[in-house]
Amino acid sequence: MSARPADRLSRAFAWVVAHRVLVAVFYALLLPPAAWLAAQVEQDNSTDRLILPSDPDYLALRAFEATFGGGEFALLFVDAEDPFAPGVLERVDRIERALAGVPGIEVNSPLSIYRRARAGFEPTEEAAEALRGFATGTELLRRQGLVGDGHLALALTLDVDGSDARHALLAAVDRALAPVEADLGPIRAIHRLGQPWVNAWLDGSVSRDIRYFGLFAAFVVALVLFLYRSLRTLVAFVATLGTCLALALGWIVATGGTLTIVSPMVPMTILVTATASLVYLHSRFVERPPGVPVEEHRIFALRNKFVAVTASMFATAVGFAALVVSEIRPIREMGVWVAAGLAIAWVVVFTLFPALQKLLEAPTRTPREQHGGFERLAEVLPAWSHRFRWPLVGGAVALSLAGAAALFGIPGWVAPMPVHTDPVEYVDPDSSLYRDMRGLAPRIPGLSVTNVWLRGPVGAVSEPEVLAGLHAFQQALERDPLVGAAVGPTSILRLVRYLGGQGDAWPADPAEVEVLAADLEALLPMEPMLARFVQAPALGEAQVTVVSRAGEHEAFEAVEAAIRRHWDEAVADHPALAQLSARTVGLAPLSARVAQALVPTLVESFVLTAGIIFAAFLLVFRNGTARLMAMIPSIFAILVMFLVMRLAGMKLNVATILIASTVLGTSENDQIHFFWHFLERRRGGSVDASLRHALRVAGRAIFYATLINAGGFLAFAASDLPPVREFGTLTALAFALSMVADFTALPAALWLLLGERPERAARPADHTADAA
User: Which architecture characterizes domain 71-203 according to CATH?
Assistant: First the structure.
């Protein structure tokens, strides 16, 4: 930096220190409203939170729901040796009656359907046998999974509008189940299945994960006391970090933010980056040369670290801001929130912290004799890294290439790393919900719903030829091994015929089909189930609900291809269907498609981050070589981390996809500080002297900043959520790998690039010059 900007900067810091009471009072006034806002933060782990509101397919889904109604689908799976025993039916009846009065919950079961046809039901032996005959006498209920060997199921449609509504409706379900579960009688168990419970479980897990911030707080307290041996310094750290967190979270809430599965990483990233920045600042301040006044040294330390700290925080902010390219809503929001939070933290770090340093009179110490571990490292590492420069650089390159192959694959040899898009996989495998969702899957047709939206002219759906074609289409779908069940207008019409004693088969006589078509409009107001499948009163739109076990994106693609194939075949066989257009919609397949954008998110955000960081710091360092060299440890750490993921059998998911941007942005802090001090001495010195200077000034801070980074994210390894647990463990590993590369591959690469050799005899260390 030129002298004039440095003078202005010094005057600015001198003003902050001189007006320290005013600065502290200003933040003290901001803190209560910010903390209050932060406490109001809400969370919502709904599947549709993955999707951008502007997504065309999402808009189409909302238009579909405006016509046919929306909601989240769930099942109550009643497991019993004889599901039609009077004792079982009496308890099922109690559950249904309790739920019938709850607005926002629609229940369909063999019992509720039977009750609509036979007014009144008492669980007597005779009534139970009559219901058994009704429920087992048709394939319709069995294909839908409502009846099976050893179970009955209650299909629930929950009118959910946000996390609070979901929790309220699920609480109502729990209240209805409570008296029955207290006395199950002949029922073996009642299992809750479906996306609403998955979302609610994720909400609870995110809330529980907040407790891990206590682990990080304890870690920071221990580290600050260990490094600086000062309670006053600890108070300055804690007050600054608490202010950063409160202001950042308060801003998120004030701008309408809602937490999701990845949101706990927002405050952690802000805390970790701010803590590392404070360590760099205070470590420079605390080592005061003999004879230098404290206030003069305070301004020097702030000015000396200003560019490096600013650049490192900017790198992290850019790394997350690049996530705005993602099509995944919570990831895009997280990028914006972290970037804004780090901008707030930057202001707090350079204003409140110096003010508190002075107010609390945080102590300094004169440099110790250079016999400590990092001082010895600074003396021996340059020569050692030169001696092993080829193996160090070659090994780093080889491991990085292996990591790239693990992530992107090798055509014809290695497939790309698989991606998890099924939300059930975000649930703890040891939980009863996960065991039920996976263990009972073979006994039900599935829980994933894809809707086929059919649109045509007014009255088209009521034409006999169209109804016959729709029946053929549904039958073809149900025969497909990828489909568990297909329910549409003709399913309900068949059920109406069955209830009327005419059997459940589709009529073969065209005259009977014409009668059904003529009765369709009259049946709509009398059969609530039919209104879910046919648009009233225009009769120009209909929908077929396809239920499958698809959970991952590839499975949904296969189901969609099967739907399209069967529709084309039905249109060829029944030309009347040609007047209808068919489009697949559905929250589950849409979420899987959006989640499949994880890999593009990784690549695009990573490339964008690297490009912006390189361009920005080219201006700071005025040295393109230095910028490229500075990225070696981060890229090495990221790629090796992906190699570890592949070897451990892990998959990419909505959390682990963030590791690349997190590590690139955050670990760049270490390389920025390393190169800032390397170039300080490089202007008039050798590579050997420059490496020793950088290691003396920044080596200790790099080590402890890495501990902060790794320790902060490692707290998430105790999370209940497998993706968050993996994110915490792998991110901590990547930070450790990056630090190893800082002290090995990076110096070795500098020797190779700059072509110098170590000095034969190390000069006496000029500690005063290093510290000044």
Answer: 2-Layer Sandwich (3.30)
